[in-house]
Specification:
By secondary structure, this protein is α/β, with parallel strands linked by helices. It has four domains: about 120 residues, PAS domain (Beta-Lactamase); about 150 residues, P-loop containing nucleotide triphosphate hydrolases (Rossmann fold), CATH 3.40.50.300; about 80 residues, Helicase, Ruva Protein, domain 3 (Orthogonal Bundle); about 55 residues, Arc Repressor Mutant, subunit A (Orthogonal Bundle), CATH 1.10.10. It contains 21 helices and twelve strands. The radius of gyration is 29 Å and the shape is elongated.
Length: about 475
Amino acid sequence: MSKSLRRFRIETVLESLATPVFVLNPARVLVFFNAGCEQLTGWSAHDVLGRECVFATSPDRASLEALTGALCPPPEVLRGEHHPVAKFFAHKETGQNAARMVHYFPLVTSNEVTSIIGVITEVPRPKPTADTSLITQVHAELAALRQELRMRSGLKSLIAKSLPMQRVVDQINAARRSMVAVAISGEPGTGKEQVARAIHYESEFAAKTFVPIDCERLPAREVRDAVARLVESDWNEMTPIAAMHPGCIYLRAVDHLPRDLQQRFVDFTHSERGAAFRQRARLIVSSNDSLQSRLDQDQISEEFFFLVSGLQIELPPLRQRLGELRLFAQLFVEECNRSRKQQVSGLAADVCPLLEAYNWPGNLDELRQVITDAHSACAPLTQVTAAHLPFRFRTGLDAQSLAPGPSQVFEPLSTLLERVEREQIEAALRQAGSNKAKAAKLLGITRHSLYRRMEVLGLEHQNDDASDSQ
């Protein structure tokens, strides 16, 4: 019997089965998808054949990406291991979820996997069995959480399991239903721009452009030019395509925005043209510290503060979200899977305790880079182990564990700052002969700010009129 005839007969038998059966080649490409699979998923063989399957979750279970992700075997199967996995399938048309067990049977010839047969069977209720690996559980938990967030709030790009992040999700939902200006604060790497994009792309203005402006890294001239184009251009005249109009202006590191540009935003908002612009474009800003602290330090004006802080969202650092760290690590592993041929199932058991022991000064950005480097280093294995973590992470972890030096007696920070501020103001007043305007110039602040700080510190305003008029 010829090889082609034998293959035809096998496919005929599999096609006649009511049980959903599919076949992947060694490159994880779907080469067979029977009628049982079509009935379960709502997708036709024509839709899916030739599609590569990637070991990654998707927030939209009814999408083609979610289907191919659910059909993809764990990387261990590609090494010849039989591996049953609990999966969820959502029907393309109805969206109804179905819990199923997928059994993967790799066909091996000359110690090489030539194809993988997947058989989908019913299960009464998908529960992790005693022999289910930790990685499989985390993979399933990540998929379930992303789906829950999407169903509950429409958010596809966030992970929010902890109470602080649940509060952030509620604030995002409140923001995206209105055009209120939003101020996002948090340490570097906590995902401030991701939250800004979630607010915009889950709002009714998602079809318009998200325009990020980096007030810290861009030269001041470029920031001025960008702001001028945004607030002074007649967008209806420039292009009739609404999708090319700005729908959200995102000012990153807004405390670095020059004061004259802060005032330009304020003046533009109070104009008739600015009021119309604010009806079709939202303003979102971010800073590493709260805007209130920036206001107290006179880095932003009061008018600008009230313009941009209609809703304030504070993002917690990663060290306060350790319950979500495994999920983030799995998410970053799966992001790497999407862009690389090497498929990694997740982290070995010896990795997470090390990740949880680290302080993560760079927060999520640093974790993503560590996982990305470890993903590259673990080839050809299918799991990231402690040995694959990058050298800079391991040295950073070692540095954290060094014994502390001799103990130091600390003065309460608020008392220290108040004492230093009082000494500096008194010295400046003495040098300026009690002239408040000159003293403020010496201190590098406005006279209004000097009066406010003197009042807070209980310093007397003596001879104000006489001294300031000299």
